[in-house]
Amino acid sequence: MEFLDKLIVAFAPKYGIKRIQAAQAVKAYYEAAKTSRLHTVKRNSSDPDAVTKPALESLRDQARHFEQNYDLGRGVLDVLVANTVGEGIKPIPRVKGKDGKLAKEFNAELKKLYINWAKKPEVTGEFDYYSAQRILARSLYRDGEVLNQYVEGTVAKLDHQTVVPFSFEMIESDYLPNDLEDDRKGITQGVQKNAWGKPVAYYVYKSNPDSSFITNVKDTKKIAANKMTHLKLMDRIRQTRGVSIFASILNRLDDVKEIDENERVAARVAAAMAGFIKKGSPDLYIAPTGDDDYREMEFQPGMIFDDLKTGEEIGTINTTRPNPDLIPFRADQLKAAAAGSNTSYSSISKNYDGTYSSQRQELVEQYASYGILWSYMVANFAAPTWERFVNTAVAAKLVDTSDIDMDTIHDSSHTRPPLTWIDPKKELEAIEKEISLKIVSRSDVIRRRGGDPEEVANKIAEENEMYKELGIDSTVEQPSEEGDAEDDEDDEDVKTDDNE
Q1: What pTM was computed for the model?
Q2: What is the model's pLDDT at position 194?
Q3: SS (H, E, C) the chain
Q4: More confident: 193 or 349
Q5: Could you tell me how far CA 430 lies from the centroid of its own chain?
Q6: Residue 399 falls within a domain, yes or no?
Q7: What is the mean pLDDT of residues 309-313?
Q8: Alpha carbon 282 to its chain's center
Q9: Do 91 and 117 fall within a single domain?
Q10: Which residue, 301, 419, 421, 473, is most buried by CB atoms nearer than 10 A?
């Protein structure tokens, strides 16, 4: 206790105790919040839009550069798209009739219309529904955001190209002006919001902003928010625009790319072996008198140097390339990049060394992360698109809803890219155990594998009928227990091959 504190406590005990407690509270403050000689505090207390606005275009352009010019950048996007969209997120209608049971015939009609629509659902006619999903997801992860406009019913100069008069238009984030601000109208970075912060309209350029000089609001068109989907990657609440998934790892990727290039050049130099002639001590050196004294010796297998002068000897340039320490260093950098890009290290590095348990652990953990992005795509694109498709089909009277419970008209489930099998035998045994214990249903397993249970059941029934007509035994022979026992080994410490 300081002398002043003792003095205050002697004359005013209550005030003195409060003063001491306040001083102790200051000392107990979070050390991470204190600036010291060894620790510099880095702060970010800005509004989320104030942070993204100056960096949005730069981050987007850099991310596109990495995709175009760096194999690792393209690989990260490929992995994300493959594990969140894959072959495509397919809707499975679950509409019920007024009797509370699944309306099988109605669902079948919806599927039939959907199959026709999925061939050319996009206004340009260049993409089917699943390739459109993949390019939307790719743009979302690379650019941080992408827009999608829905066009329903009869529209001038637009051919829907499908039975159901419903299409959508994919719009890159470049078309949403980053510098369009109007406080009176509530417009922030091209997005108009109400008092609660809900988007009510989007102002997008009528043509590609990179092909002409566009700065005037007259060069934009206003699209109501109920006709638009704005997919974006956000880190903060009420963040208006999305930021590339590469944002936190761009510097690391740039460094790794430069190191890779430098090491390749160094390895090429090392491969071009060269030698030199050591002249000996300075007193033995004789300066050349003309061009005749210039000597060049070409390396040949098994060659003998017999033209060396007094005091000379042949030396070679020793190199440490390729650098043996590069691989572990690069692996550590890729692990950090994988953490920042929400991907798995094994997938982006194509390095599948390790035990079955370690690979399985990585796969299961990463599958949950991919599931977050998948659920975002379903909630913000796949499900709304399906609902609009159904509404348009009903409005066009392409389906009969007289016996349908309209409260369930949008009910559906959506497929997800399956969890990859590392050891099919172990995976199948686990699935068999789940079904036998009635933990999951066969339909759950089929959906988990990215399939439609009803479609799978119909195909099995068709196959069984075909085999029966041809007189082929369609029963599957069960493996013997002895064979199972021989294969039942502990793989904890056994190395697996690349994609076993």
Answers
A1: 0.79
A2: 94
A3: CCHHHHHHHHHCHHHHHHHHHHHHHHHCCCHHHCCCCCCCCCCCCCCHHHHHCCCHHHHHHHHHHHHHHCHHHHHHHHHHHHHHCCCCCCEEECCEECCCCECHHHHHHHHHHHHHHCCCCECCCCCCHHHHHHHHHHHHHHHCEEEEEEEECCCCCCCCCCCCCEEEEEEEHHHCCCCCCECCCCEECCEEECCCCCEEEEEEECCCCCCCCCCCHHHEEEEEHHHEEEEECCCCCCCCCCCCCCCCCHHHHHHHHHHHHHHHHHHHHHHCCCEEEECCCHHHCCCCCCHHHCCCCCCCCCCCCCCCCCCCEEEECCCCCCCCCHHHHHHHHHHHHHHHHCCCHHHHHCCCCCEHHHHHHHHHHHHHHHHHHHHHHHHHHHHHHHHHHHHHHHHCCCCCCCCECHHHCCCEEECCCCCCCCCHHHHHHHHHHHHHCCCCCHHHHHHHCCCCHHHHHHHHHHHHHHHHHHCCCCCCCCCCHHHHHHHCCCCCCCECCCCC
A4: 193
A5: 29
A6: no
A7: 70
A8: 64
A9: yes
A10: 419
**Which residue's entry shows tokens 């205050």?**
8
Q: Is the peptide bond before 453 cis (omega within 30 degrees of 0)?
A: no
Predicted pLDDT at 493: 46
Note whether 188 and 156 are same-domain residues.
yes
Do 63 and 185 lie in a common domain? yes
Number of structural domains in the chain = 3
Please tell me the predicted confidence (pLDDT) of residue 479.
57
409 occurs within a structural domain: no
Query: Which position has the token pair 């000379």?
Result: 312
Q: How far apart are CA 109 and CA 95, in angstroms?
A: 11
**234-285, pLDDT tens digit by residue?**
999 999 999 999 999 999 989 999 988 888 888 887 777 666 667 666 666 6
Phi, psi of 462 (to 5 degrees): -65, -40
Same domain, 65 and 153: yes
Domain boundary among 201, 216, 232: 232
With vertex at residue 146, the alpha carbon angle to CA 414 and CA 46, rounded to the nearest 5 degrees, is 115
Residues 143 and 110 in one domain: yes
Verify that 117 and 36 share a domain, yes or no: no
